[in-house]
Amino acid sequence: MSTTARPPVPPVKVEEKLYQNRYMVDEGRPHVRIQPHDTASPTLRTLVDVCPAGCYSATDDGRVEIIPDGCMECGTCRILCEASGEIEWNYPRGGYGILFKFG
Amino acid sequence: MREHFHAIVVGAGPSGNAAAYTLAKAGLKVLQIERGEYPGSKNVQGAILYADALERIIPTFREDAPLERHVVEQRIWMMDQDGHAGAHYRSSSFNEEKPNRYTIIRAQFDKWFSRQVQAAGALVICETTVTALLRGENGRVEGVVTDRENGVVTADIVILAEGVNGLLGTRAGLRTRPKAEHVALAVKEMHFLPQETIEARFNLKEDEGVVIEATGTITEGMVGTAFIYTNKESLSVGIGCLVSDFGETKTKPYELLDRFKRHSSVHPLIEGAEVKEYAAHLIPEGGYKAIPQLYGDGWLIVGDAGSFVNAAHREGSNLAMTTGRLAAETVIHNRRMGLPNVAENLKRYKDELDRSFVMQDLKKYRNLPETLHTNKQFFTTYPHLISSAAQKLLRVDGDSKRQKEKDITAAFLRTRRFGGLITDVFKMARAWR
């Protein structure tokens, strides 16, 4: 609707934002998993963009992967993809995961 | 032998703490279970604390609670790409002895609240996730199963204060997973600046605070709002939109936040700040129609898990604390009367809620979420029209004022037509009624 075009901005590096946060990573026990698939559904591909921690990424062969180390446990992916069975969403074990200093 | 409690509270946010504190203060044997390293370590809020709800639980909270600034000024901005039109309300009457609103830092506030809960006599255990509800033969909830070894605990009642993403209630079939159009995803950063810089930029004296709530094209057509809250030595800067809208537009939340921060109205306020945390959290914004069943045999639901957020007025933690307190008072009442905590005796909690501002406010705005979700012009067309109108009136350029008014009216009619404008006014008025 705007009459002025949005000025180009450099891409935001979400990793740099997450670097400020404190985490207790539960090595080898990812709390969110993606079900095995050959080609990612459109909804699953959406998570690559909308995950606020950038945990999801697209692979060259059309699948979607997750590395939940930077997960802030917001649950956005759970709301979008859990019902279709594409992901399995749990909280990390007690004490692990994001530890907000300020919240 | 298993230890038995009068009540188990799952979660140590504002609703869980309000419930646990009220129960323990009345002499009940309370166990509170929190999955984070400490109470608050998993919790996120803007954050504004409304004094009244807490004052009814801990009247002396101002003596030692970690409060940042009391709010003396509220700004409401309607933003477009180049600027904002806004309303400010500031009053020295907010510099009262017992201020009405404060900014807080949630992790610190929750830690403080939890210390009060423990001082009142509740047993609080952290780093423990409740994985299931323990059910009796007749389906009655009789306790919880945790991820600790031998981690089964029984109680007369389990209060679920597990937040918007509570898996426990969903997996036990007590409520459904929130719908994408009923929850907003908010991202927030903590921007640190020297205290004097904040006070100079926002025109504040010591302890005074400003709240800015912003709507408009800044959410790029999605239903949502942005905010800037002044803390003592930091600013909470965030933006949130419906998850369904994020899903449809595939917008990257951190890029949306970045564009808000670069906006000419925002950048001068945060310039030079050091960012020390980036957080994301869901806010249940479905309102009245999204409230699940709140009680049953052996269980109650409070706070965000019950969708207790008034999105129209950006209120949440006060509703959370009030639901926690009312749930606890019902349990205390039943215990005094010798009544078992079964559904018919726990209905009292719902009745008390219906009588309180919590349900009355949520009921008032019951149609607002749908109205906004299906009428995106409130987030696209109108901010721009209002900005253009303000600019036309303020620019002195030789055109007569009558001509300017004609042009403004024509711009509104061109964009929405007469029928559209009238319909929008009615829709908004009805949703707000």
UniProtKB/TrEMBL annotation, chain B:
Key word Transferase present: no
UniProt protein name: Protein FixC
Organism per entry: Rhodospirillum centenum (strain ATCC 51521 / SW)
GO molecular function list: FAD binding; oxidoreductase activity
Coiled coil: none
Protein purpose: Could be required for the formation of a functional nitrogenase Fe protein. Probably accepts electrons from FixA/FixB and reduces a quinone.
Chain ranges of the ETF-QO/FixC ubiquinone-binding domain: 206-282
Pfam families: ETF-QO_FixC_C (PF26311), ETFQO_UQ-bd (PF21162), FAD_oxidored (PF12831)
Cofactor: FAD
Listed Gene3D superfamilies: FAD/NAD(P)-binding domain
Keywords, sorted A to Z: FAD, Flavoprotein, Oxidoreductase
FixC-like C-terminal domain sequence ranges: 368-433
Encoding gene (name): fixC
Superkingdom of the source species: Bacteria
Family membership noted in the UniProt record: Belongs to the ETF-QO/FixC family.
